[in-house]
Amino acid sequence: MLKMPNLEVHQPDAVKHDTKVSAQDVNVYYGEKHALQNVSVNIPDRSVMAFIGPSGCGKSTFLRCINRMNDTIPIAKVTGKIIIDNQDIYDPSLDVVQLRARVGMVFQKPNPFPKSIYENVAYGPRIHGLSHSKADLDEIVGASLEKAGLWKEVKDRLNDPGTGLSGGQQQRLCIARAIAVNPEVILMDEPCSALDPIATAKIEELIDELRQNYCIIIVTHSMQQAARVSQRTAFFHLGTLVEEGDTTDIFTNPKDQRTQDYITGRFG
Ligand SMILES: Nc1ncnc2c1ncn2[C@@H]1O[C@H](COP(=O)(O)OP(=O)(O)OP(=O)(O)O)[C@@H](O)[C@H]1O
């Protein structure tokens, strides 16, 4: 009899939201390497989906497909379809810069620009023409910092460098920067892996608040984190999506032996 880990699953509501992102038969090749094989999944709006699985199984590769970040890797080739709302994001006529505003990304290591706190957040809205005056921009910067749970801590030092903040504050600044351009989807690639437990808890609380308004997809190595923050979980193994479903089901009643082995710590 396998012992399931004692994971506290956070499932505050059972509301099912419409699909925001639909991946259909997605494959990714890095040169000869077939890194992601026939991945199909529907990701609901206004909820958090966690991607879990052992190192090298393709979680980040798949995440990067959703805002076409793999386009920046010359040897990467993506086939299949990814539809956001009704739009195929691999349609050659699509403006990738606009797409990356709609689908924001937060990385493993906080990466603020070497500019002031204010400028880190103002940069995106300015280049995307979202503000028409300084007052507009101030409003967007303030609201974004507020939504990212950082306003109170930085309101009196907006001109200080973003890089002078603590790691957790820098990560919230990066989340504010993503929010500032009105994204619909936020991709998070192990956003807490460089943070201490207190900063991690703050980011997790923030993710829980943000899911009211955004479709959030998070890659995490921590099953505890997936259980705490997500409503849906997808388990990847060796470049395939083995199974996905409600987080509670994946952690308490997985259908596939490989999922069961992973969540019970047999590999990974
Ligand atoms: N830029 C790249 N060039 C060549 N191969 C790559 C590249 N990025 C990833 N890969 C390969 O693709 C496979 C999937 O990698 P990926 O980073 O997506 O996995 P992952 O599940 O996110 O791993 P981890 O949890 O360690 O971050 C791995 O075999 C990896 O070596």
Automatic annotation (TrEMBL):
Domain of life from the UniProt record: Bacteria
Family annotation (Gene3D superfamilies): P-loop containing nucleotide triphosphate hydrolases (3.40.50.300)
Cross-referenced Pfam families: ABC_tran (PF00005)
Listed GO MF terms: ATP binding; ATP hydrolysis activity; phosphate transmembrane transporter activity
Domain annotation ABC transporter: ranges: 21-263
SMART domains associated with the record: AAA
Alphabetized SUPFAM superfamilies for the sequence: P-loop containing nucleoside triphosphate hydrolases (SSF52540)
Keywords: ATP-binding, Nucleotide-binding, Phosphate transport, Transport
InterPro entries found in the cross-reference section: AAA+_ATPase, ABC_transporter-like_ATP-bd, ABC_transporter-like_CS, P-loop_NTPase, PstB-like
GO cellular component, one term: membrane
Biological processes annotated in GO: phosphate ion transmembrane transport
Entry's family note: Belongs to the ABC transporter superfamily.
PANTHER family per UniProt: ABC TRANSPORTER I FAMILY MEMBER 17 (PTHR43423:SF1)
Protein name: Phosphate transport ATP-binding protein PstB
Organism the protein comes from: Hyphomicrobium sulfonivorans
